[in-house]
Amino acid sequence: MKIALGQINVKQGQPTENLAAMREMIVQAKAEKADLIVFPEMALSGYCLQDKWLDQDWCAYLESLNDELLALSQGIGILYGNLGTRPIGQAQRGRDGRPVRYNAAYFCADGQWVKRENSSLDGMYIKHLNPDYRVFDDSRYFLSGMEIAMRNQTPVEEGLRPFLFEKDGKTWRIGVEICEDLWSEDYALDVTDAYLKQDVDLIVNLSCSPWTLNKERSRDKRVRQHAASAQGAFVPLVYVNACGMQNNGKNVMVFDGDSTIYDEQGERQLSLNDQFEPECRIVGLHEREVLTRQPETKLMRALVSAIREFDKQMFSPKMKWIVGLSGGLDSSITSALLVYALGAQRVVGYNMASRYNSLTTKNNAKALAERLGILIREGSIEKIVDATVDTLQDYGYPQAEGLALENIQARLRGHLLSSFASMEGGVIVNNGNKVEAALGYCTLYGDAIGALSPIADCTKVQLFDLAKQINAAFGREIIPANLLPEMDGDRLIWEFPPSAELKDDQRDPMKWFYHDWLINQLTEYPGGRVEEIMDDYLQGRLQTSEIGRWLRYYGLDEPQAFVQDLEWVLRTMQGAVFKRIQFPPLILISRGAFGSDVREAQMCPETTKRYRLLREQILALPKPC
């Protein structure tokens, strides 16, 4: 069988554009004599539509587009994802009382819906495993195949019958899955295994799976696990994923494509590009190719793709991106990503210096702008700082100093950026990183503003690596070496240590490398690992792990110092929730991004009994020699 893998850039909420992209690939597949073309999950509408799924007219419109694809199926099989709203037996309405909705795959060929073995659901498969964790809210909007079976008091297996695809005198038994159906470890139902027990010829998985760091390794591992469990009975698995960008309001998700055919051993035999780009390729079911991947550069490619697609889908092509260009690492990286994604003519940098800004960062900002070819506007905020301080005194307040003066500077910069954006008809980019967001090391209405936060899911340590990726991509030094640390034996050397530069001799309070690791541990799904971290410390496992060197470097191998630092991080993170819920949408690259991934409430949670016991035991440990 010749299969066309239709890896399209699914534009959320744009079914006409998506249908046009599908039509173009169908024409190509027919011209190249493909027997079947496969598209991703929710290929017509996009997956991340939030409460737009509650719009009944919209849902009816999406379902009506099935007729157009049915007409296009003359001479070829078409397998694609779309919404379903047709009542099925007793499944007339969803949990919310509205007409039923489900996430479906549709299969048509030669102008007909493809039959299924012993099933009344010809031409359609309903997703059985609905994810309800991290950014996923499937059960808020859709009934699963399992729930529909329960409503109708029928065996779940009836919804898992293979499609019978007739081609050239052969009947192909094809099991169809949708995304999460492959990831069945934590569910009572194993969809893949159910198909293998029915002697299918192949399994096709339609996905709209957001990329996160090392996601491809996790998927490959999962397929190998299925193959191992099958004990020689595994069949080829065709995985077709979306590419591009979709967002849910708080998180901007990228989709890398990486559509793949896995062989009977669960190993990759052929893959499309994982560059977040569309591709249609017609391949033989057992065709192989040498796979080349560059995972070390994928983070940069993900961020660039997200920026480019977010800009294309949200804004006009001439809109300027406004950057507060301090000359520090974060703003330098953000500027470089914007230029790489959109071109230098779309980016304007603003250096808004005060008496506390060093000559090093001011020179860095100017040199970076020259290397990137962007316009930089330079000025001082001293006059408006003084005017604000004077105005506060007019209201009866004393001379502003300390944190109040620091926040005045940050908010005035935010005010200026907003004014610059208005003058340019542009939007502001946010420069914050994940550690700053976690610890609230930012000022509301100051440096916490923006239309998009490209690096707010990246720790500072990840930015050190990203800076090197950027320099390699540009083929020259864009991010200056004086912003990156070096290790000299056990010493961490900074030519210019990270600083907000809001007062004299200021340094960021973070313990870099250790706090980066700790915040990832506390936020990565399923999160809440503080007791496990404490237990690892108590048992000595943390000290002998890779992070142990940073415990020793910062003196945290001393039990009291460890507890004090941990509690400072926990207290500071919880106290900063009110800032994060007002933060701009951020590009998701981890399994623990703030926003709709890590969902937070403003509260003061008490500690657990286990926490208090572990705390006592750690403080009773002897000091290190």
TrEMBL record:
This is Glutamine-dependent NAD(+) synthetase. The keyword Ligase applies. SUPFAM superfamilies: Adenine nucleotide alpha hydrolases-like, Carbon-nitrogen hydrolase. Pfam families: CN_hydrolase (PF00795), NAD_synthase (PF02540). Pathway: Cofactor biosynthesis; NAD(+) biosynthesis; NAD(+) from deamido-NAD(+) (L-Gln route): step 1/1. Its EC number is 6.3.5.1. It catalyses: deamido-NAD(+) + L-glutamine + ATP + H2O = L-glutamate + AMP + diphosphate + NAD(+) + H(+). The gene is nadE. Belongs to the NAD synthetase family. In the C-terminal section; belongs to the NAD synthetase family. Keywords: ATP-binding, Ligase, NAD, Nucleotide-binding. It comes from the Bacteria. One of its GO terms (cellular component) is cytoplasm. Residues 1-292 form the CN hydrolase domain. GO terms for molecular function: ATP binding; glutaminase activity; NAD+ synthase (glutamine-hydrolyzing) activity. The keyword Cytoplasm does not apply. GO terms for biological process: NAD+ biosynthetic process.
